[in-house]
Design goal:
37% helix; Carbamate kinase; nine-stranded mixed sheet
Length: 241
Amino acid sequence: MPTAPKYRRVLLKVSGEALMGSQPYGIDLDTVDRIAADVKEAKLAGTQFCMVIGGGNIFRGLSAAAKGIDRATADYMGMLATVMNALAMQAALERIGVESRVQSAIPMSAVCEPYIRRRAMRHLEKERVVIFAAGTGNPFFTTDTAAALRAAEMSCNALVKGTKVDGVYSDDPVKVKDAERYAALSYHDVLARDLKVMDASAVSLSRENKIPIIVFSIHDRGALAAVLRGEGRATVIGESA
């Protein structure tokens, strides 16, 4: 008999870069399909899902601001990129029979629902996957912060962040071969050591709402379901390490 998931409701945060696959830019549909399949596998085990996807594979606000575009305008452009990614993920999920809804913090009624908390909660209760797009709807806030905010609003049991590596390291393991990998960290450790897991406001918001952050590799097939059972290779960030 399969092991029941430890978490009844989670928010999965995926970076926009994760959707690029091996491409230098844009959306790799094979990668999107694989992530959707992982979500379906974990969902069938009994976990309710909502998602936030970044937009860095299409447009990165900070980089554009550095090149001369007004920061607020650049951030709004980045929010629109997240809507494109959310729609791609919705299409992938529905191709494999997973009912889903996209809700955008910037209303665009022709393509998706506006973000309404009570409606989103109802979708989750009906076992739909809710994909939150356009960040918080405000410039100067990252999609990490949007993920922590929506996780709190949706009463999630965990914020699960899919990255390119299997946890949190003391340094970039791609560049530093002997970087130390942590199995567990406290919120304070992450903030005090300035570990580049999520931005400080996202970590602080998670700490205030006592939502653990689980960091795992989104590229390892089946890893999502495993970490939700408490069996996978990941770093868990909580009140104490």
